[in-house]
């Protein structure tokens, strides 16, 4: 009898220890985060309504998550847009925004709030970036963007990695074409290119390979949750992708370019300097419809190539089993005009420059594959990830958590703000107002067929004043 009591006591104690340990693990184990950033990706994806696009991997993620159909970035350029993503705050409008922040940290003359990765690092995460996450791929400055004394985001990453393969250095990777071709001058490099070969003949193949390697290592360690950010370069200019991706669009009929005319009056229109600076064989897509279609097919090929790299990373996440406890965010850093308003590029404050895809998925989410038409912005990602992981949201963030919209995609959003050095803009569910530094106003009604082709500011002075007040208050 005594032996039986001892055995029963031992078993009860063992069960208590096991239950306690399980409970402890459940309480302390935070979800991992996989943040995938894609450069110059407008919502040109099948899951966002572009039926002719082949984007099976991103679409598969969209079928499990919530697609934010009305997500807008806070700046129509890589550097300032990524600043808002990575800091949760409005910032400078130039591509050097994060380097200016780094300089302030180095000078130590003012208190600088923690960036998003640093915040998660402080809260027990291993933070790793691969590819183009901040403005410079690999997160370093210097002539070739590989100077380890010039860090774009101090204190942010445990590892910030940029494989360069045959492209020699991160600067070479950023605008690289097939088989190690590096941009010396823009005018000497073709604006688009198609070459036979596998994914590794272009730079993103190396980025995806390193991302898979890092993901495998992070998933195999149970000591700490991970925050892995992966930055895919394509479809950034020049539009280069393996021929197999271009072949997907050979002979297809492309949709018509909406409002292709140069706008009348004062706007944020520009002459597409980045695009026009490349070798175009003397052709202008605003005057040559066949050339315009070829440009669009090459852009589409780059989207499909980028999608394939995303697929490799997501496949590794599933292979490791880490997908069962990982929040996945896919984010486009801004839009890109493909001839709308006679612009080929970003940098305007029209819809096409600011509208970008956003997909969020987490295990057990209630509305898999849902669409949200709520107006949201890039600034919302930082507080959302804090909310989803159960980490305190810092008071200094300017965005709003999207957790309620993820729980109910019919929930309303909020206005979205964006800016350049010359103007700022506010997007509501019905209108866009753009305020120039000299006081000139553009107002567009998105409930009409004219949308952003007819400035109605003079007809609605009260609405203009209302939106001015909101815009100035948000950016104050």
In short:
The protein has 476 residues and is an alpha/beta fold. Helices cover 33% and strands 17% of the residues. It has helices at residues 2-28, 56-62, 78-87, 97-107, 116-122, 170-174, 203-220, 243-246, 273-276, 289-320, 351-354, 381-389, 403-407, 461-475; strands spanning 32-38, 66-68, 71-72, 126-131, 140-141, 147-151, 159-161, 192-195, 226-232, 239-242, 326-332, 337-338, 344-345, 358-361, 370-372, 376-377, 416-419, 423-427, 431-436, 441-445.
Descriptive report:
By secondary structure, the protein is an alpha/beta fold. The chain has two domains: 32-414, Alkaline Phosphatase, subunit A (3-Layer(aba) Sandwich); 422-476, no CATH class. It is 33% helix and 17% strand. The strands form six sheets. Strands 7-4-9-1-11-14-2-15 form an eight-stranded mixed beta sheet, with helices on both faces. Helix 2 (56-62) crosses helix 10. The protein is globular, with a radius of gyration of 24 Å.
List the keywords.
476 residues, alpha/beta, Alkaline Phosphatase, subunit A, four-stranded antiparallel beta sheet, 14 helices, 20 strands, globular, disordered N terminus
What is the helix content? 25-40%
DSSP strand count: 20
Give me the Rg, rounded. Answer: 24 Å
The end-to-end span amounts to 78 Å
Which CATH class of the largest domain?
Alpha Beta
Provide the fold topology.
Layout: H1 2-28, E1 32-38, H2 56-62, E2 66-68, E3 71-72, H3 78-87, H4 97-107, H5 116-122, E4 126-131, E5 140-141, E6 147-151, E7 159-161, H6 170-174, E8 192-195, H7 203-220, E9 226-232, E10 239-242, H8 243-246, H9 273-276, H10 289-320, E11 326-332, E12 337-338, E13 344-345, H11 351-354, E14 358-361, E15 370-372, E16 376-377, H12 381-389, H13 403-407, E17 416-419, E18 423-427, E19 431-436, E20 441-445, H14 461-475
Parallel strand pairs: 1-9, 1-11, 2-15, 3-16, 4-7, 4-9, 8-10
Antiparallel strand pairs: 2-14, 5-6, 11-14, 12-13, 17-18, 18-19, 19-20
